[in-house]
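Posting this for the archive.
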Amino acid sequence: MTLFSDLSACDLRLVERQLAQRENWRRENEYAFRQVLAKLEPEDAAAKCSNASVHQRARPELLDLRTVIHLRCHAVIGRSVGMSDAEREARRLEDQKRGEWGSPQVITYDRLLSKAKALESRGAA
């Protein structure tokens, strides 16, 4: 996740391009990416999603190219209070088109915070 504030439209396009470049790198270097992920898991961590007959530990599971890894990347671009009414309305319309997170790559800090609070309240209920 990358944190930005006071972005112009030009800066925002740059952020989106950088996120796309990182995703392209990940696709082109799939095994190296999986090695980094695997090293983040403790050696004795249990597998997360595989049948025990396939993988019992998380590291081999992550290294297995048959294991599907879904990633979602977002750039946090500051507070929505700094947006004009027109920008807020444009973001609201974009959210309606693209789903609950809005843009698949760019969200405001306030939107991220509201999502975290909603998830936390569901867990506490």
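The radius of gyration is 18 Å. DSSP finds five helices and three strands in the chain.
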